[in-house]
Amino acid sequence: MSNNFFRVLNSPDTARCLQGAVVVAQQLLRTQEISKVVQQNSKTLQELARITAEQLYDAQASNRTSIPDSTSTVDNGFKAEVNEEERAQMLKLQKQYEGKNEVVGSAEWREKQVPGSPVARVAGFGALAVGLVGGGVAEAISRIGDASGKVSESVFASEGNSELLARSLCRMRGAALKVGQMMSIQDESLMPPHLAKALDKVRQNADIMPEKQLHGMLKNGLGEDWETKFVKFDPVPFAAASLGQVHRAFVKDNESFDQEEIEVAVKVQYPGVAESIDSDLANLKMLASVTGVFPKGIFIENIIKVMKEELKEECNYVLEAEHQERFRDMILFPSGNNQFYPSNDDNFYVPKVVSNLSTERILTTEWAHGVPIDHVKHFPQSVRNSVGRRLLKLSLLELFHFRYMQTDPNYSNFLYDVDKDRITLIDFGATRSYSKEFVSKYLELVWAASNMNREKVLEISKEIGFLTGEESQLMVNAHIDAGLEVGRPFQRNAPFDFKASKLSTKMSQHGTTFATERLTPPPREIYSLHRKLSGAYMTCIKIGAVFTCRDLLINTIEEINPDLLENL
Description:
It is a single chain. By secondary structure, the chain is of the alpha+beta class. The chain is built from 22 helices and 13 strands. It has helices at residues 3-9, 12-28, 32-42, 45-53, 84-98, 118-142, 159-172, 174-185, 193-204, 211-222, 277-291, 300-314, 317-332, 381-402, 436-450, 454-464, 473-487, 498-501, 503-508, 511-517, 524-543, 550-560; strands at 232-233, 239-240, 244-252, 261-269, 348-349, 362-366, 371-372, 404-406, 414-417, 422-425, 431-433, 495-497, 546-548. The strands form four sheets. Strands 1, 2, 3, 4 and 6 form a five-stranded antiparallel β-sheet that branches. Strands 5-10-9-7 form a four-stranded mixed β-sheet. The protein has a two-stranded antiparallel ribbon with strand order 8-11. Strand 3 (244-252) and strand 4 (261-269) form a beta hairpin. Helix 3 runs parallel beside helix 6, helix 7 crosses helix 8 (174-185) and helix 15 crosses helix 17. The chain starts with a helix and ends in an 8-residue tail after the last helix.
């Protein structure tokens, strides 16, 4: 036998495969019901292997044709200027999008029973664990005789296992899928490319629940006569996410509106996801420990800890309705003399909540017209610039002025309405408040990065808790460099081309260092904050926006802490 055979046989990963198999078996054999699942899974290993080989459908792949630009001029204002022909083409694309359900026609959208009971959900994680361990063993065997250096990589982080993980999270939904979606936006530079790609598809997809489960949730929330409360209710969801799915409907004579009949969005939570948060995250943590499928530097344990608190709030739709109404007041009816507050030029909108058709597990709101914000990449340059600038202003407004932020940057949570040149904000489950002390320090950090002040970036990073002071010089330099990259759009008082800047590529250059040299997880507030800010940057990159950013930051500082401007 070759030397590589013994290298693989004696490697830590192979030992972990064997240990993992034992741990998984022990976990699954705790109850008679789950032991039956193991027997069933053992009979379907070939099917698991087939699943891991399938390519996930890219729901965001676009087959539309971009609208040609009428001008290459960079517009740094908030208003988008388009001619009549461009406007007609934009309206056509919006009509095409709104005329179909996101779910229909996609090979990745499948109707599957949501595992609602604790036993069913544990069994689902058990099947995933068996698949990951089996995939690890298969990967180890495949590396025998491989002299490419791939042997040093974890056998669990294989392409097949990455795809199995993504598909399983989409089927499980709930807390497990939400963690996968969170990781797809944050820290993707720490992951192997195929794992990052698989998790990106997790962010975009979830299976839908059968009509029987849907009707059960509607009866539980709105009563046996729930159908009489709608003029029309589309049983096919328009969209599906980690915690629930959205249906289009019409209601009549609702006290929250002036119109006789209005179109509404009804978000229905998947059964069992709220009650299974603790067990789902515990099982996910066990999987991470046994298989090591997630890189060390991502601090999956801390992500799980933070997500446990956040998810319990997100599953409470009564709380989300309160967030939405508060956001609506702040965006549409701002109070005070703050010159940075939303104006008519910003043109943001937050839909009304239909309170008498909303419960802890069902949320009904005014229907929002428009296309997901990433579709703006097909529109003229002036529109892309205007939308990008408005979104970045919104992020600064939420964090530094309101200290109250919607932290889920999913493209579908921001809809651009061509007809009104308006950005509508939806989905306020992941809304967080930040202390004045933290926000003040973070503003100092952003200002230091925007002025390329390495010493100040290091000093404030230690104060906030990014660094312990015991890190290697390699880690310190990587952290400062990454911080300066985050501040780069604000460094010059000139238009910044997000797509040409290669921001994400330059950030990813430090991934290996963070994965191996980071001594402490980021501060608790950073998980949600950076999820939103990185999402704003990624949106500007996605749509190809070009606009001046520094004045937005300076205007913020003038309102919040003008003394910073004297310390240039």
